[in-house]
């Protein structure tokens, strides 16, 4: 196919792709003069729209395009409220009204399950948020080499959009970020250049407990806050103390690694403590800068509530929580079962889960830091067969080995919490030969204005 970059064409948007961008197609002659279907990706469009686009670049077997003019507008289209919307990669569906987003998420889950042979009638309507803005309790902003602080441009990890506002982050988190941004400019500090591996400031991680109000600011830098930087660090402490009383943890974290991750080789507590206190579903959690915790706390509390409702834990039962993280589900379930065992890969999360259980006065838990694929056998041998099992794997799903091991262990009820309907459906199929039936699927919108959807589901062993 000849290069069609820069060509303008008209396209009907039929579907959305797996990342939430519009998809359509048109016909073109190929080099041999035969008609060839061109598959086009059109960001910021909606199903049912007709759009004039300019072709940008090839993307695997498709062409990425830029919308120029919406010729037929979807009745669900709205004016995106955020000034960064067109460029920022944070939330790609701000041009879609919220009920349209929720309906799409429900239909998408139904379609995936139906495709795998399940009854789509088991899928309930997606539970949305009453106010779908300022819902995130954690953000990671990046410094450009010039010292601008903001989010990455969509599809371009080298470009930073200087932050003016963010409509999905908690509002006081944005205020605290702006104080740091101003401080960087006033001291003319340089950002880090990842191509040259030079410069000082890399990222700013902001996390806040919506329950206690406490904020953590963690600045990742390539040098210690010493020598000439000491004065600047002292000034940051003074500004934050005066203007952001909710900041209970102000950290300077050294990271000299080439890898561009928010990790630390040496931690400096500039002010306050090295953790913040949070609460979820009535349980207390301590969060360090590297603790994984659900990022939409209001909706995550609903996930816990739904998991309890579907799992029906009993005081006589044993339970396993696979991929347990810091114990978001383990703690409320442990309160309602005889004994609970959690498995999780990340050691620091397991340390947190143990401490969280202790902080909440739970003495019937045990936690194992291990890859689930290996840890599950070990746990089943030492702990015995559970009546109830909760599983909340990463996006890739649990995989056949883990699912078949669960199937052989024959827990009566499995609560499967998923952030990816596709991998959920695949894992579910692995359970079929072991006599399980899918009973109910509840989608929950944890990330409004993005294509992500979370599921809480219940799978039961058929009566013999
Ligand atoms: C979706 S999170 C769920 C965490 C927890 N249930 C919660 O709600 O906070 C998935 C978890 O699986 C863990 N994980 C990823 N791969 C793993 C593996 N192979 N074995 C065990 N845990 C794993 C991650 O560290 C993460 O904590």
UniProtKB/TrEMBL annotation:
Q: Which organism is it from?
A: Salipaludibacillus keqinensis
Among its keywords, does the record have Methyltransferase?
A: yes
Q: Which CDD domains match?
A: AdoMet_MTases
Protein name as it appears in the record: 23S rRNA (Uracil(1939)-C(5))-methyltransferase RlmD
One Pfam family name is tRNA_U5-meth_tr
Instruction: Mention one GO biological process in which this protein takes part, according to its record.
Output: rRNA base methylation
- A GO molecular function for this record? rRNA (uridine-C5-)-methyltransferase activity
Annotated region Disordered: the residues are 1-36
Provide this UniProt record's keywords sorted from A to Z.
Answer: Methyltransferase, S-adenosyl-L-methionine, Transferase
What does the sequence similarity comment in the record state about its family? Belongs to the class I-like SAM-binding methyltransferase superfamily. RNA M5U methyltransferase family.
Q: Where is the composition biased (Basic and acidic residues)?
A: 12-35
Where along the chain is the active site annotated?
Answer: 419
Residue positions binding S-adenosyl-L-methionine:
294, 323, 344, 392
Per the UniProt entry, the signal peptide is: none
Q: Which PANTHER family match?
A: RNA M5U METHYLTRANSFERASE, TRNA (URACIL(54)-C(5))-METHYLTRANSFERASE
